[in-house]
């Protein structure tokens, strides 16, 4: 054999050996993974409540208007932080408030879990709430700075102007003595006006009329009930239609479908979109005319939209958002900001009415600070430095998060770890991670995370603002809970966490500091208030007609 032939032979043998070794390693790895996968506990091995029916599973209990609270409490008490619940048609769902599992779902693998939304892109276009992956990252990059503390500070005058109008409206209604007022309605008007003026430099409401007259205020109130009437078509048929049928054919089909509610929703969505386009065009036009013109507008150029348009103009081309994306943020912000904040604020007012001692203490703190600073309007720093006001806000957002659960769908097979071993439903096994197959619904309970006895201590279910005036227990500070704010899951965590949480905090503090100083709030006789659980929890009168309201007695303090 020639030297060259034997070299070729040796190379050939080495190549074959390498292929064999690689193949062997891959087979062992795949066998190991398969065995590991097979040995990872499944959702069905987790403890959980019995299903109400094969068709609906635990769905109605999970979002039950009246019994939802009890159901969530039972889940935490009886089954712990990693639970098996049932969805439609016997499907298995994973319910959790375990810190490590939440970290996996909301932070580490955030884009492998798609949010299941009420209206999705149909309602709010390509706004932040509906984006995922790279597109979401790009929008967040442009929008995060818009919500900076510096911008919140510069919005203070707009906040005060709106709340001044609220204060005047309430004063006029109580000048002749204690009067029953539906404060939810006023908090909703205030929240819409605040996001209108400081979000887009646009006024929706003069805050004078008994009921708001602007069509947007009416539409935004009617939208959710109308969507609810679209029922199962909204969650099961519409996503498929959006995915597979082009927009033009979709619109044609929608127009010829003889369904009144569908047409009403179409008209509302079109109207909201047209208004957003109109506001955007006006803002852009004003910005082109220069700072002097902008300064004369409602937002004085300090509103979120003006800041976003200006930032977007000078952004690198790969970071720039297109016009549709900017316009879509307007409905997104209104939807995300209005009912969350107004119900949060209403909850605080309700609790203050139930606890006059807390209300008095808060009023004393505000009056003392007013004397100390000798000014009609607190500066940003003075306002956020009021400890008791802060404690009342935090404690209410802890015990009563307006959004109680987040619902996600897993986009791939995944293994979710938990912080502490969970006892399997057989009573013997200790589960430290759970195999969650692709397309499984995952429910993150913000409510139970905030109320966990293990994390917050034995008094976790009590409303105690004082807990925030001394150091929190190590069980919560060391828990590695993935919260964006004060160890509370109220605003979620990770890169999809609430972008408006500072805005909302500020809004609450401006409203409370002005109202509690001026007015006294007490419970209306013979009207017991019940908070119903839905997408965003809201108050109703027990035994009433079921419409959301918060009647309280208001009088000058
Ligand atoms: C008490 C008031 C509020 C609460 C409890 C709240 C709660 C939340 C929660 C839990 C999320 C996460 C939703 C999810 O991942 O499925 C979220 C997201 C969001 N919130 Fe808030 N929010 C409040 C106020 C606001 C305000 C005032 C704004 C705007 C000015 C706002 C804008 C948004 C936006 C745009 C998102 C989507 C963020 C993203 O996907 O990147 N929120 N909010």
Automatic annotation (TrEMBL):
InterPro entries: Cyt_P450 (IPR001128), Cyt_P450_CS (IPR017972), Cyt_P450_E_grp-I (IPR002401), Cyt_P450_sf (IPR036396), Cytochrome_P450_monoxygenase (IPR050121). Heme binds at residue 498. Its cofactor is heme. It comes from the Eukaryota. The chain crosses the membrane at residues 12-32. GO terms for molecular function: heme binding; iron ion binding; monooxygenase activity; oxidoreductase activity, acting on paired donors, with incorporation or reduction of molecular oxygen. It is found in: Membrane. Its main location: membrane. Belongs to the cytochrome P450 family. This is Cytochrome P450. It comes from Rhodocollybia butyracea.
């Amino acid at each position: 054999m020639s030297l060259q032939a034997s070299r070729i032979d040796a190379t050939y043998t080495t190549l074959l050996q390498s292929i064999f070794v690689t193949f062997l390693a891959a087979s062992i790895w795949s066998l190991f993974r398969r065995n590991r996968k097979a040995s990872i506990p499944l959702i069905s091995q987790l403890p959980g409540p019995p299903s109400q029916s094969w068709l609906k599973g635990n769905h109605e209990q999970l979002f039950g208007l009246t019994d939802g609270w009890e159901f969530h409490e039972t889940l935490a008490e009886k089954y712990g932080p990693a639970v098996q619940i049932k969805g439609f048609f016997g499907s298995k769902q994973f319910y959790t408030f375990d810190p490590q599992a939440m970290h996996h779902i909301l932070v580490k693998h955030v884009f492998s879990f798609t949010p299941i939304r009420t209206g999705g892109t149909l309602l709010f276009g390509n706004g932040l709430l509906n984006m995922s992956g790279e597109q979401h990252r790009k929008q967040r990059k442009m929008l995060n700075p818009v919500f900076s503390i510096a911008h919140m500070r510069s919005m203070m005058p707009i906040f005060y102007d709106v709340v001044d109008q609220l204060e005047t409206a309430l004063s006029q209604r109580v000048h002749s003595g204690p009067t029953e007022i539906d404060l939810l309605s006023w908090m909703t008007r205030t929240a819409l006006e605040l996001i209108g003026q400081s979000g887009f430099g646009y006024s929706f409401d003069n805050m004078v009329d008994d009921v708001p007259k602007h069509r947007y205020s009416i539409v935004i109130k009617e939208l959710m009930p109308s969507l609810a009437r679209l029922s199962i078509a909204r969650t099961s048929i519409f996503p498929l239609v959006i995915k597979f049928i082009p927009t033009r054919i979709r619109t044609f089909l929608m127009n010829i479908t003889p369904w009144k509610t569908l047409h009403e929703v179409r008209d509302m969505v079109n109207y909201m979109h047209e208004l957003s386009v109109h506001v955007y065009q006006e803002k852009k036009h004003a910005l082109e005319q220069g700072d002097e013109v902008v300064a004369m507008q409602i937002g004085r150029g300090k509103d979120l939209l003006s800041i976003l348009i200006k930032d977007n103009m000078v952004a690198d081309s790969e970071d720039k958002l297109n016009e549709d994306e900017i316009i879509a943020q307007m409905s997104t912000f209104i939807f995300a900001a209005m009912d969350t904040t107004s119900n949060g604020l209403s909850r605080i007012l309700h609790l203050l009415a139930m606890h006059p001692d807390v209300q008095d203490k808060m009023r004393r703190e505000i009056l003392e600070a007013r004397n100390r600073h000798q000014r009609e309007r607190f500066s940003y720093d003075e306002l956020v430095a009021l400890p008791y006001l802060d404690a009342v806000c935090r404690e209410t957002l802890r015990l009563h998060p307006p959004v109680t659960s987040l619902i996600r769908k897993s986009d791939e097979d995944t293994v979710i770890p938990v912080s502490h071993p969970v006892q399997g439903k057989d009573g013997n096994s200790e589960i430290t991670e759970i195999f969650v197959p692709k397309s499984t619904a995952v429910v993150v309970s913000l409510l139970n995370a905030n109320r966990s006895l293990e994390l917050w201590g034995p008094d976790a279910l009590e409303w105690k603002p004082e807990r925030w005036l001394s150091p929190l227990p190590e069980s919560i500070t060391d828990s590695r809970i993935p919260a964006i704010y004060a160890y509370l899951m109220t605003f979620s965590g990770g890169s999809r966490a609430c972008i408006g949480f500072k805005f909302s905090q500020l809004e609450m503090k401006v409203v409370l500091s002005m109202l509690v100083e001026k007015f006294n709030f007490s419970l209306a006789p013979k009207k017991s208030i019940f908070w119903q659980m839905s997408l965003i929890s809201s108050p109703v009168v027990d035994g009433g007609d079921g419409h959301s309201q918060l009647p309280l007695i208001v009088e000058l303090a």
